[in-house]
Amino acid sequence: MTLALSGSDIAKQIEEKFPGSVVEATDQNLMVEAESLFDIAGYLKDTPGLDFDYLTLITAVDYLDCFEVVYNLTSIKHNHSLVLKARCYSRQNPTLPSVVGLWRTADFQEREIYDLMGISFEGHPNLKRIVLWEGFEGHPLRKDFL
Amino acid sequence: MEIEEVYSSRQLDEKEGRQINELIDRSQQPIPDPDRWLEEELERNILLTSVDAILNWARRSSLWTVVAFPACCAFEFITTEASRFDLSRFGMEIIRASPRQADLMITAGTLTWKMAPQIKRIYDQMAEPKWVIAMGACAVSGGIFASSYSVVPGYNRIIPVDVYVPGCPPRPEALIYGIRMLQEKIARQSLIAEDK
Prior knowledge:
The structure holds two protein chains of two kinds.
Chain A: E1 3-4, H1 7-17, E2 22-25, E3 30-32, H2 37-46, E4 54-62, E5 67-75, E6 80-88, E7 95-97, H3 106-117, E8 120-122
Parallel strand pairs in A: 1-6, 3-6, 7-8
Antiparallel strand pairs in A: 2-3, 4-5, 5-6
Chain B: H1 2-5, H2 10-26, H3 36-39, H4 41-47, H5 50-61, E1 65-66, H6 73-81, E2 95-96, E3 104-108, H7 116-125, E4 131-135, H8 137-141, E5 163-165, H9 172-187
Parallel strand pairs in B: 1-2, 3-4, 4-5
Helix pairs in contact in B: 5-9, 6-9
């Protein structure tokens, strides 16, 4: 069984390395600032002992006052996992850094989030609609779509 | 970059998107069912010939289905085709991969607007005379997805439908009943009728 690591424990390491970047840390998850998301993700991937070498999935949530993107990370090497989150508060142009450079899995999933939720991922090599067609108006998984 | 070369071109996507949006604009109203000639008893009686009878017998006894099954009703169709229900009893054991050799389209499953141009194209490629059975709730009216942003609310928005088989999914017996209904419909068809 994969061990779910506590976000609070990892938050201490992150806070040492990237001061002021942790927004919220609980036993279930770790929420970080959008600006430092890419660096923290890279740190989680490459640090010995953490080695999150596998991105299980990315998903996004619309809380109306903000969008939350959730990264489920797994380390195949150590058989443990972590839920990483980041929020963006703009409704017109929500933007987060892309993690395609770290995990290729993120390619299609970030495109899906861009398609259905309208969140742009900066640095994505091919950010365009994946499920719906070009010319479709709006982002249907947003709560204010209809 | 090497990575960028593996992605499809944006121009191609935009062309596809334009085609889909045009199809949506064209398909706001359902296409009327091709059944006017069924009511024209008088005209039919006058024009009925033995040629009609033989031709209709041949046509209805060897309905070949085209492979165009967008979603889950396809499994019910596969069951119908397999040994337990044995569709070959009705002269239908052959499923044609080429629309040129098929004369029946069983629209098994939900159709999204993104897939709609391909289905319409397959229908257009089929040689006349051709018939369509709308199989399942999604094919009849869009089913539970009827008000969705991405689903075609019934196949009759893009192609004329002859027989509707409701159900989610329909039992194989229901599909066979629908096929029997279609065969009866073909039997009443006339060479000189207005529709088909």
